[in-house]
Design a protein that fits this description.
With about 250 residues, this protein is α+β, with helices and mostly antiparallel strands. The protein is built from seven helices and eleven strands. It has helices at about 25-40, 95-100, 130, 155, 170-175, 190-200, 240-250; strands at about 15-20, 45, 55, 60-65, 85-90, 105-110, 115-120, 140, 145-150, 180-185, 215.
Length: about 250
């Protein structure tokens, strides 16, 4: 079996995901798929991609949930409707069971930065790591016969041929809502650590005891919309400039 690093890793590189602003657009999913298919690593395969029974390997997925407001009211009967989009990939856990169950040493945790990876040359596709993962973050690539997972885009973050702005995971670079953030969560002064402290970032399923590196920022409480006190003008007398021109154009319609 594979062993975890004997000492805490000096860095804990990972992601902080803001559930308040994620819009579920799947840009991170497509970016991840493309980078890991067209980048330096082995391509993520798809089976029967244009058929009725399509399947394929994705390292990042988004789940959407309808949230029941506080008090247990049923959506639509009381309270306000809320949809939360929940991105999920490997959380690069401190106590990663996927590493310790691996019989060949293919799954391992890097001692220098805490990233959990798979050595595909050693992987025999037994699936034990997927069974042990509480988050369902590993996927079997049926064409390659090996297990694949999020690498935190290790081929980007340490690639000095890229501009510094691009040395972040592909999903982070792509997110149009700025819902995904990357950094060292082992450094209390880092931007991601400060975000977690200020917003009450939390672990996914802490009862599992895996101590995931990735954190989630909870949705902020919604404020009720105040009724507008503005009174609509009964006419457009006295309008000037652009509004006078607009009023004239509307009169012609």
């Amino acid at each position: 079996m594979t062993t975890l690093p004997s000492l805490p890793t000096p860095k804990r590189l990972g992601l902080v995901i803001d559930l308040d602003v994620c819009v579920g657009c799947h840009a991170c999913v497509i970016s991840c798929k493309e980078w890991n298919t067209g980048g330096y690593g082995a391509a993520l395969s798809d089976q029967n991609p244009y058929g009725a029974d399509v399947s394929g390997a994705f390292l990042n997925r988004i789940h959407s949930f309808e949230v029941v407001p506080e008090g247990g009211q049923v959506i639509g009967e009381a309270g306000e409707a809320r949809i939360v989009h929940f991105p999920k990939s490997c959380l690069h856990c401190e106590d990663a069971p996927c590493v310790t169950v691996c019989p060949t040493g293919a799954s391992y945790k890097r001692a220098e930065d805490g990233i959990v990876l798979v050595d595909e040359d050693k992987c025999i596709g037994c699936g034990l790591c997927a069974w042990s993962c509480a988050y369902g973050a590993r996927e079997m690539d049926l064409a390659a016969g090996v297990m694949k997972k999020c690498t935190l885009c290790i081929d980007r973050i340490y690639n000095e041929t890229l501009q510094e702005i691009d040395r972040v995971p592909s999903c982070v670079r792509t997110c149009p809502a700025n819902a995904r953030h990357y950094g060292d969560l082992g450094d209390p002064s880092s931007e991601v650590s400060r975000m977690v402290a200020e917003r009450g970032g939390f672990d996914l399923m802490p009862e599992q005891g895996t101590r995931p590196t990735n954190k989630y920022l909870p949705p902020r409480a919604r404020k009720p919309l105040a009724a507008s006190s503005a009174v609509l003008a009964e006419n457009t007398d006295g309008a000037r400039g652009f509004f006078a021109w607009l009023d004239g154009m509307l009169d012609r319609i």
